[in-house]
Design a protein that fits this description.
The complex is a heterodimer. Chain A is 38% helix and 17% strand. Chain A is of the alpha/beta class. Chain A folds into two domains: 19-124 and 247-302, Periplasmic binding protein-like II (D-Maltodextrin-Binding Protein, domain 2), CATH 3.40.190.10; 126-246 and 318-335, D-Maltodextrin-Binding Protein, domain 2. Chain A has a six-stranded mixed β-sheet, with helices on both faces. Classes of the chains: A alpha/beta, B mainly alpha. Chains A and B meet through helix 3, helix 7 and helix 12 of A and helix 4, helix 6 and helix 12 of B.
Chain lengths: 336, 288
């Protein structure tokens, strides 16, 4: 009995060392978990491991800009790659990130505006105008209709987050031309928002936004495209007249010991074959321009990249500079 | 010259003066020092970047922060009062119940306690929303014509928070109440006291330590509530913990987030001190 136990342990140790000898590098990748990360594992991580047996990918979740920052500041960098959102990975975040090595990653393959000094887009996501086709008298067309309480009475679900696109949405609805959005006229946007303030239900989590639309609590909403698509069987439709960009980005924390392997992985993850595979599982478009035309049929028509011409590109640099002030003003406005 | 001062009888040293068995506290104290005092000191440090108090200046100059802090304390006080009022009869029933009833009451209390906070908040949404169960039943029965506004109101927040906090009030109350000798109530009624008089003069003073413990526990926990007010309240019901989380995870402004946390902690300590003072005053009144 005792003997068997020792033998088993010894065998285990042997397997472990054998494994370690084969895989010299372990890359730890952190993403947002859930279906999103599962899709990334199937489309990116598994093929990468097959193509590079010397590199093992260890997954972690959830991604957190705050955690990455704390890791770098304390000198204990456990992540080699992290998926992040629009608000992070800008030039103003240089302190915490390795620059993307464009001698390994091909910069020219990306859709304009999605490859920066410290980040490259993993996929193109969107905040869209979703609506309950059964509850509305007609299909809304664009942000003007979102603010039109006469034609479209009822509650609207909106993300309670200043850089969610709500300021841009309000200004566009108020008649500001898309190319003159920035610098944002915050007070004008809030004045426009005042006109529907009593008809807004704010949401904090993606699940909440989906619940609001599915239950009929709200009949219109500015929600993430994935949440809108998963309500399709409940009669939730998407108005693609205008949409705000909201993407996923790869970043590499400063001080990682596997910088080169991480860059190699990023180049691989953003190749057309992998990005097209990803569109089988998630309604997010590829960031690689040659992959856009070849996307899977699963969500075709509801991928943000199918509507690139209508994209309202958010100015992440403007938000990085002014985000804190706008947020404070937004919080004050919410309490008014 | 010789300094032969008369030997002063030496008092006990500091170590000797400690009560016996103090050494047993060492592991707990070390743990607190390492995992509470040290990170706390770091938090205070983070709130003062480069020794500058600009984060605190900002908090006390923008009305948004003071308003949310005041709101947090007000909601926590209401939640504390409601929770203790609801918990009192429940704990009384538990303390005086037979074996089977006690088992049932305990299970009914603890099962929701083990369910995730997020899940419970979402369940309240399903019940309280305009298209939710409560409103549909009332509409169906013809008792109301328009859905009642139950969710995204302060009522919703208080309901959700009381539900979450109930066990924290019931358990300390129960542990005090089950030690109260009910024959004292009989004695008081033999002496001619009405039930209410006996309750007020005999039972309540003995249950008071439990009430105090329940009140302190629920109030302090309520101050830190985050997800329940976010899901069940309107933006006007924002509590300070939501703001702290926003500064850390959305704004990445660790300094301001830390300063807000320190202010919350300071005010909580103040509230504790007031509770303590109240207790001393009550004890004095009882002794007099």
């Amino acid at each position: 009995m005792q003997n068997n136990l020792w033998r088993a342990l010894l065998a285990g140790a042997f397997v472990l060392t054998a494994d370690a000898a084969l895989a010299e590098t372990t890359l730890t990748v952190s993403s947002y978990g859930g279906g999103y990360q599962e899709a990334q594992a199937k489309a990116y991580f598994a093929p990468f491991a097959a193509a590079h047996p010397e590199i093992t990918i260890r997954q972690d979740s959830p991604s957190s800009n705050a955690k990455l920052k704390a890791m770098v500041e304390s000198g204990a960098v456990d992540w080699d790659i992290m998926v992040t959102d629009d608000s992070f990975g800008l030039d103003s975040d240089a302190e915490w990130l390795e620059p993307i090595d464009y001698s390994i990653v091909n910069r020219d393959k990306f859709i304009p505006g999605t490859a920066g000094t410290y980040r490259i887009a993993s996929d193109i996501e969107a905040t869209v105008l979703a609506y309950d086709a059964n509850a509305l008298p007609a299909a809304p067309q664009g942000y003007k209709d979102f603010f039109d309480l006469e034609k479209f009475p009822g509650m609207r679900a909106v993300w309670k987050y200043a850089p969610s696109g709500i300021f841009e949405t309000a200004l566009l609805a108020d008649g500001v031309p898309a190319d003159k959005l920035y610098p944002l006229d915050v007070e004008r946007a809030l004045k426009k928002l005042d006109t529907i303030k009593d008809h807004i239900v704010w949401w904090d989590t993606g699940a909440q936004s989906e619940q609001l639309l599915d239950s009929g609590e709200a009949n219109m909403g500015l929600v993430w495209v994935s949440r809108a698509v998963s309500g399709a069987d409940q009669g939730i439709k998407i108005d693609w007249t205008q949409w705000t960009s909201q993407s996923g980005y790869w970043v590499v924390p400063k001080g990682t010991k596997n910088r080169e392997a991480a860059m190699k992985a990023l180049e691989f993850f953003t190749e057309p074959a992998q990005q097209i595979a990803f569109t089988q599982y998630m309604p997010y478009g590829p960031s690689n321009k040659t992959a856009v035309a070849g996307v899977s049929e699963t969500f075709k028509g509801n991928l943000p990249t199918d509507h690139l011409d209508n994209r309202v590109l958010m100015d992440a640099d403007w938000w990085a500079k002014n985000g804190a002030d706008v947020d404070m003003r937004f919080q004050e406005w919410l309490l008014e | 010259m010789t300094l032969s001062s008369p030997a002063i009888p030496r008092g006990p040293t500091l170590v000797e003066r400690l009560p016996r068995g103090s050494a047993l506290l060492v592991p707990a104290l070390l743990f607190l020092l390492l995992f509470y005092v040290y990170p706390l000191a770091q938090l205070i440090g983070a709130s003062l970047p480069g020794g500058s108090g600009k984060n605190y200046a900002l908090i006390f100059s923008r009305p948004v922060f003071l308003r949310v802090i005041a709101e947090t304390f007000r909601v926590s006080l209401v939640v504390m009062a409601v929770t203790v009022l609801v918990a009192f009869p429940y704990a009384y029933a538990m303390a005086n119940a037979g074996r089977r009833a006690l088992l049932f009451l305990t299970i009914a209390l603890l099962i929701p306690f083990w369910v995730s906070l997020l899940l419970r908040s979402f369940s309240w949404i399903v019940l309280l929303q305009n298209t939710g169960l409560v409103n549909q039943v009332l509409l169906g029965l013809g008792l109301i014509e328009k859905p009642l506004k139950l969710i995204r109101t302060e009522t919703g927040v208080i309901l959700g928070m009381v539900h979450v906090l109930l066990p924290y009030a019931v358990l300390p109350l129960y542990s005090v109440m089950k030690k109260i000798d009910m024959r004292l109530m009989e004695a008081s009624s033999i002496c001619g006291a009405s039930w209410f008089h006996g309750f007020r003069r005999v039972y309540l003073p003995m249950a008071l330590p439990g009430v105090m413990a329940a009140a302190i526990l629920t109030f302090t926990l309520a101050l830190g509530f985050y997800i329940t007010p976010a899901l069940l309240g309107s933006p006007r019901d924002m509590m300070i913990a939501q703001m702290i989380a926003g500064q850390f995870s959305e704004q990445l402004n660790f300094g301001l987030g830390a300063a807000l946390a320190v202010v919350l902690m300071g005010l909580t300590a103040l509230a504790f001190a007031l509770f303590g003072l109240g207790r001393v005053l009550l004890a004095r009144r009882a002794a007099a």
